[in-house]
Each structure stands twice: as C-alpha cells, then as structure tokens.
Design brief:
Order of helices and strands: EHEEEEEHHEEE
Distance between the termini: 27 Å
CATH superfamily: Methylpurine-DNA glycosylase (MPG)
Number of domains: 1
Shape: globular
Number of strands: 9
Oligomer: single chain
CATH topology: 3-methyladenine DNA Glycosylase, Chain A
Radius of gyration: 16 Å
CATH architecture: Roll
Helix content: 10-25%
Largest sheet: 9 strands, antiparallel
Strand content: 25-35%
Number of helices: 3
Structural class: mainly beta
CATH class: Alpha Beta
DNA sequence: AGTGCGATTGACT
DNA sequence: GTCAATCGCACTA
C-alpha cells in the first residue's frame, strides 16, 4: 500500500498492464488515477466510476464504424476519445481494444486528490463532492477538451493515467446511465459507498 | 444542404 | 422533482 511517510507515489500506467478487453478495462480503471498537468499546477483524481462501450454495442459511438469523430475509439487501447455532448459537456473516454476495433471506457467520476483549488476555480464551486462527479464536470474541472482527443494516455504529457498503492474499495456493477440502446447491459462500474459517484441511489447499491 | 438528436448539466418549481 | 440550453455530428436526400 502506501510508501514510507504515508505519501502515495503516482506512477504512469503502461499499455502492457491495460486489459485488452473494454469491459475488463473499465473495471481495471476503477481506483486508478487521472493526472492533468496544467501551467498552474497538477490536478489529479481517483477514478470512482466508469462505463464500458464494447464492440458490437448499439450504445457505442463506434457501432456504425469509423467516422471523423469516433476515429480515436479505433486506436490501440489507452488513447483518449474526447467529444462534446448536448453541445455543452465534454466527455473523456479511454480506447479499449486492439487497433482497428472501436470501443471505449467513459470516465464518469473522480474523487479529487491534487489541485483541488484549481478544480474549484475551473468548476465555479467549492463543494468537493461536486467537483468531478459526472463526466462533463470532471472534464471541466481538469480542463479536458478537444485538444486531448487522440492523446496517448500511457505516454508522458499533459494528461495521463496512473496508479498508486491505494485500495480501490468494493466495486459495484450496474446498467449504464443516460442511454436508450443496449440499456440493460451491466457495463457500469463504481466504488460502492463513494460520495463522489454520480447516478441515483438505486443504481449505486 | 437540411435536420434530428444526444454516454449532461444547472437552474428552477 | 421537471426542463431548457446548445452544437457538432451522422443520417437522409
């Protein structure tokens, strides 16, 4: 678990340790860390909620094949797919399969770790619980936008995935939020009991 | 070229 | 609890 002094060191995830399966990756990413390096300082948060959009999934943007928007979903696992939803909210996804297969993991919520003051500034709220609870909110808190689309999240840079030694806690599984097609599949993963998870009470049992 | 809609959010009753 | 905002994209023609 923690190193000497109780300070947990964050190390970057290598592509080799990412499961080559989008549902497994969504489960794997629970408890991992998103690190954002800004000119003003580092912002990071622990992933507490994900959703998998798997091959052959009618709810996935990649379902109808490669398009200009979904091209990053077809990159080798570990690349960012960032898109604008409802004209208002940016969404961060991690591609989940081998190159040429379209799939991704939506990062839905973070528990703030570092750079909380910066997150508060970006979000316009002080409430820790609301800083990164929701896929659009976490992108706003970390200033993730179209500049990050297609980025390799296993490489050194302004946005990457990491891990420390912390225990992720008990992981629950439910149906996905806000979709209409293939809505009954158990492809949402979350930390049970975490106040930083989005969704209704019933989904988070 | 035109149109309908969504992997959400924030404001409001 | 309800509901409108907002816009790039994918689909139809």
């Amino acid at each position: 678990m923690g190193s000497a002094g109780g300070q947990l060191v964050t190390t970057r995830l290598t592509r080799d340790e990412l499961p080559v399966d989008t549902a497994a990756l969504a489960r794997f990413l629970i408890g991992r860390i998103v690190v954002r390096e800004t000119p003003e300082g580092v912002i990071s948060g622990r992933i507490v909620e994900t959703e998998a959009y798997v091959p052959g999934d009618a709810a996935s943007h990649a379902f109808r094949g490669v398009t200009p928007r979904t091209r990053p979903m077809f990159l080798e696992r570990g690349h960012a797919y960032v898109y604008l939803n409802y004209g208002t909210s940016w969404m961060l996804n991690v591609s989940g399969e081998a190159a040429g297969i379209g799939a991704g993991v939506l990062i839905r919520a973070l528990e703030p770790l570092e750079g909380i003051v910066l997150m508060q500034r970006h979000r316009g709220t002080d409430k820790p619980r609301d800083l990164a609870r929701g896929p659009g909110r976490l992108c706003k808190a970390l200033q993730i936008g179209p500049w990050a689309d297609g980025l390799d999240l296993c490489a050194e840079g302004l946005l990457w995935l990491g891990r420390d030694g912390a225990d992720s806690g008990e992981v629950g599984v439910s149906t996905r939020i806000g979709i209409t097609r293939d809505a009954d599949r158990p492809l949402r993963f979350y930390v049970r009991g975490s106040p930083f998870v989005s969704g209704t009470r019933a989904l988070n049992v």
